[in-house]
Amino acid sequence: MFPSKSALTLWAVFLAAALLLCVNIVLAASIGEMRIPFMVTLQSIAHGLGVSDVSLDPIQQGIIWQYRMSRALIAAFSGAGLALCGVVLQALLRNALAEPYVLGVSAGASTGAVSVMLLGVGGGAIGVSAGAFLGALMAFAVVMFLASGVRRGVTRVILAGVAAAQLFNAITAWLVSTSANAEQSRSIMFWLLGSLGGVRWPDVELAAIVVSAGFVLCFYFARTMDAFAFGEDAAASLGVSVRGVRAVLLILTALITATLVSIVGAVGFVGLVIPHAARFLIGPGHVRLLPATALIGANFMVLSDIVSRVIVAQQTLPIGVVTALFGAPAFALILYRVRTEE
Amino acid sequence: MNIEGRELSWIRQHERIVDGVTLTVGPGETLGLIGPNGSGKSSLLHLLAGLRRPSSGRVYLDHEPIDGFSRRQVAQKVALVAQHSTTDADLRVEEVVRLGRIPHRGPLQGWTQSDVEHVEQALVQAGLVALRHRRWHTLSGGERQRTQLARAMAQQPGVLLLDEPTNHLDIQHQLDLLTRVRALATSNIIALHDLNLAAMFCDRLVVLSEGRLVAQGAPEDVLTPALIWRIYGVDAAVERSPHHGKAQIHYLV
Questions:
Q1: Quick one: closest CA in B to A96, which residue?
Q2: Cβ neighbours of B90 in A, within 8 Å
Q3: What pLDDT shows up at residue A124?
Q4: Are the CB atoms for B206 and B31 separated by under 8 Å?
Q5: pLDDT for B81 beyond 90
Q6: Membrane spanning segments where (chain A) (predicted)?
Q7: Per-residue pLDDT averaged across A26-36, rounded?
Q8: Which of A19, A89, B69, B247 could form a disulfide with B199 if both were Cys (CB 3.0 to 4.6 A apart)?
């Protein structure tokens, strides 16, 4: 939509980001408690991809492929997915601070997931992901209800999000403290902070399908999101069916958020920071912004995962802690810039 | 293009904002919409743009009911310049004008020669060629309104609706904007506060009061001291200007 940067620069940025992502994923797979030679890491990945049949130590191969590789890919897909949700929400709500975590959607998804895990809501008919999806939709409903009635609701939406997050976090804490045993509550609290521990290939498949499909759908609406630059009426006068588009995209972000929350917990600030970084690099047009955001988000999350594993010796921090350490100052910075521009 | 509103009413929260307004604007004609604050000018424009569905009555574009067109088809025929446009996107003038091509492009369709030409033409019409790379946030109020005018022209509309486009502009930019609008081949409906500007730039005026159409016709027929007193409660004398021949209102306080 906005060819302000030359096409060549653009492809260079995309290519560099994609290459960097591959490097980071291999790096993430090579780092861990058990020292495994870098060559073995590469061979194990090649073996896992089915392009090599060198015989390897099955334990090392298993650690690289079953544990670390699945973990790195989950990090990449969740980074891409959360960043994508951030771009979409920022465009639709015309709010620089919008993202699933800030709006309380992640909290809603957590509540939904915990209800299924601890209370068996749905009697086994719905899985944790479906529970998270219902929770996320509920959180959206609460935010939209609280924020409605005011047309110029830029701060209002964020405040509504804070309220929703508090509400759903309280429900989750209540559920955990009344219905979980000590072991369960420990693992749930750890997961709530955002944790990549214990993810396996089926999780990767689920995340890959949801995030990729979500990306394709968002990309289809890229120009439509451009049309929202001057608000909903302006978008409508440019031929956008505002209600329909908004419903489709909000449900889509709820779905992506819920899927990722059910796998890695509520990881905050990725959706907030990455879109701003991407906009800074390649401009506001969504045709370019969406792929750039997804790539940068994936890189950011894989790197955050590496940091979370090496920053404290012999220990792995929840990844949400790392993203928050980067994200909270960035949130403050963006808030400050939004203020001065108003 | 011809645009017609027939018996338009719009009720919001049990309040009649627009009450049975019928008006029509022919090809190339400029209609001025005047009336006090809260008389329903903005709401009427939103109904005519198809952004709100009237509670009763209908809008017709070239005698076809507007409900028969998709949102996108309407956007190819009718463009709206709002009173005040804000964004937090870091857009350049040219990028804002390009938004006007959205109704003409498929979701994944590339940028065509025709798109380029219409954007260029719109930039020329709005006098923005030299400002095309400027950032929106650095523009003055007048430049922003001209950018929105150019965006609207890039839509290739047959009908242009402007909602108090000269609010907050200095007199130079008010005259500049309205002169540019007059130079277009579109059918225009402009909501205006300034009665002298309305008299100078409009072929016909429609006066709204409490959502109802209370007078319409040529500016010199509509803008009488009696009407100004009835609508605004202001004493005025009206004479034909010896300089431009249009009605000139003197307010008497």
A1: B88
A2: 279, 283-284
A3: 62
A4: yes
A5: yes
A6: 72-93, 100-119, 125-147, 154-176, 204-222, 289-311, 317-336
A7: 88
A8: B247
The answer, yes or no, to whether residue A106 has pLDDT greater than 60, is yes
Quick check: A291 contacting B, CB < 8 Å? no
pLDDT of residue A269: 87
Average pLDDT over residues A282-308: 94
Say if residues B197 and B217 touch (Cβ distance below 8 Å). Answer: no
CATH (residue range A7-341):
1.10.3470.10
Of A220, A231, A239, the CB nearest to B102: A239
Name which of B81, B77, B75 is nearest B177 in CA terms.
B81
The mean pLDDT of A102-119, rounded to a whole number, is: 90
B12 touches chain A (CB under 8 A): no
Taking residues B30-55, report their average pLDDT.
Answer: 95
Residue B87 near residue B43 (C-beta atoms within 8 A):
no
* Structural domain boundaries in chain A: 7-341
Q: Rounded mean pLDDT of B82-103?
A: 92
At residue A312, the pLDDT reads: 85
Domain count of the fold of chain B: 1
Within-domain flag for B246: no
The values of phi and psi at residue A296, to 5°, are -65, -40
For the cut 90, the answer to whether the pLDDT of residue A304 exceeds it is yes
A215 shares contact with chain B (CB less than 8 Å):
no
CA distance linking residue A102 with residue A140, whole number of Å: 12
Residue B138 domain-assigned (yes or no) = yes
Higher pLDDT, A311 or A225: A225
Residues contacting residue B14 through CB under 8 Å, at least 6 positions apart: none
CA-based nearest distance A4→chain B, Å: 8
**ipTM associated with this complex:** 0.91
The two structure tokens encoding residue B19: 């009450």
B144 close to A (CB below 8 A): no
pTM as predicted: 0.89
- Chain A contact present for B85, CB below 8 A: yes
* Residue A62 pLDDT class (50, 70, 90 cuts): confident
Q: What is the arithmetic mean of pLDDT over A251-277?
A: 91
C-alpha triplet B174, B180, B182: angle, nearest 5°: 100
Among B70, B88, B95, beta carbon nearest to A96: B88
Asked if residue B106 belongs to a domain, the reply is yes
Longest dimension (CA), chain A: 65
B141 neighbors B169 (Cβ within 8 angstroms): yes
Domain interval for residue B59: 3-218
> How far apart are alpha carbons B55 and B57 in whole angstroms?
7
The CATH number assigned to the domain holding B136 equals 3.40.50.300
Would residue A194 be called left, alpha or beta, if left means φ above 0 and alpha means ψ between -120 and 50 degrees?
left
